[in-house]
Structure to design on (107 residues):
């Protein structure tokens, strides 16, 4: 066995030992005209633990949640000035690690 194959096999074992893969969800909060909404509150609810994380959308309406469990379902929505977007769902059965979800709030 060469040193290279030992290193590759070691990296594969290390990758397997890290546990479940982490997921990321990101996107933009926009209005009915697809204009970004700055300062909207984006909520991410873990359906297993019922914990809720929140994030204020940036100047371009962007948001990002990282280090999400592969084994949980999530609900995500945004609110701004008393208005709310529809609730989107992320299923634990979906094996993607990156989700791009735009949230629309009609004003």
């Amino acid at each position: 066995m060469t040193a290279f194959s030992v290193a590759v096999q070691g990296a594969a074992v290390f990758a397997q030992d890290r546990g479940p893969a982490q997921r990321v969800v990101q996107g933009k909060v926009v209005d009915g005209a697809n204009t970004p909404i700055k300062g909207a509150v984006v909520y991410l609810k873990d359906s297993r633990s019922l914990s809720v994380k929140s994030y204020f959308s940036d100047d371009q309406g962007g948001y990002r949640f990282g280090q999400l469990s592969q084994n949980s379902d999530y609900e995500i929505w945004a609110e701004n000035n008393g208005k709310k977007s529809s609730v989107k769902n992320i299923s634990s059965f979906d094996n993607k690690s990156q989700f791009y979800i735009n949230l629309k709030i009609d004003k």
